[in-house]
Task: structure prediction
Amino acid sequence: MEKKYISQAVIKRMPRYYRYVNEMIDMGINRISSKALAEKMGLTASQIRQDLNCFGGFGQQGYGYNVESLRDELAQILGLNKDKKAIIVGVGNMGRALTKNFHFERSGIELIAGFDLDFGSIDTVNGPIAIFPIDNVDSYIESNDVEIAIITLPKELASTTAERLVRAGIKGIWNFTSSDLHLQGYGIPIENVHFSDSLRTLSYNMEKNNV
Amino acid sequence: MEKKYISQAVIKRMPRYYRYVNEMIDMGINRISSKALAEKMGLTASQIRQDLNCFGGFGQQGYGYNVESLRDELAQILGLNKDKKAIIVGVGNMGRALTKNFHFERSGIELIAGFDLDFGSIDTVNGPIAIFPIDNVDSYIESNDVEIAIITLPKELASTTAERLVRAGIKGIWNFTSSDLHLQGYGIPIENVHFSDSLRTLSYNMEKNNV
Result:
């Protein structure tokens, strides 16, 4: 992949394309025009062509997109075919919800263990993964080539724990702590999940509906 | 508020502005230039001015933004000062995580009850709210003026339950079921929380880091 500047707005749409394309495959659709894809996604056809052209195109004039090829190209762009290993740090309700219900394998990720501070009070097996005390996390990351840490700890513990995980070798953080992590200088991608942004967007759209 | 077209991209940034402005208030910052706000948020100063001008501006040339006034204006735009009532439908791990840890009041929302299908097997009180059997949901919505339903049910039950809730009077849905709800014709805003989009954005940014 060529290293050129692609805006975060385009990047944020890539997972959405991937999701829609997978839905089309589930529905038995083999090919689709940029116009039809645009309608489904609430975008314009030219925006879709522009977005996908950032990565080399993939459509053919007069034919549209072959849905399975597009899915494979998007998976490659997003790095979903790399089989990255992940651990979850903090196994409270949020951690359990993810462990039991989220399909990590659909994002090319293998969740291999959980870690918790309050080790004595929780089950040592949570669905498909074992839970270990946090003291062991550094050596576990190193010996198992863990790349991703999913942090579902209380806010107060988020930053210090994240720093520790990065020092132990973590390459990316999926942060559910509702506090933005400050890890300047490490150069590690962090994806913050902000539930409140989503709820406030809903609130805005409800207001607009009432005008 | 004037009813004019504002793009979803602008709307999606409003909750982020609100979040950053609140952080500044917590840090004791009274006023900020669009340039400084832009740097914090990874946007450009002109984009911020353009975004806020969609709703009437609020900044003053040479002064910047008064942070508290901006917070109040954003709260009004987002409808966070309306005290909407919400219920949660599905009280598994995800429902419990939200009930116990999420600050609904910071979005002007009061979570007043939970409902579950599998009523016999769960606690009837979960943190601050009582949990009722799903059979009672319709009359509860009507007699308590509930506007928002938070759906944390298994995917298979999402669409039929959402329709039932809207028929009972729900005005907006916050959907955690990882299946897009199809409620065409009802004209109800739905905000879908797609964890996988966020994880795949992380995956992309990790790949890019490795190039």
Q: What stands out?
A: Residues 198 and 207 of chain B are 14 Å apart (CA to CA). The two ends of chain B are 47 Å apart (CA to CA). Chain B touches chain A through 62 residues (CB under 8 Å). Strands of chain B lie at 31-32, 65-66, 84-89, 109-116, 125-126, 129-133, 148-151, 172-175, 190-192.
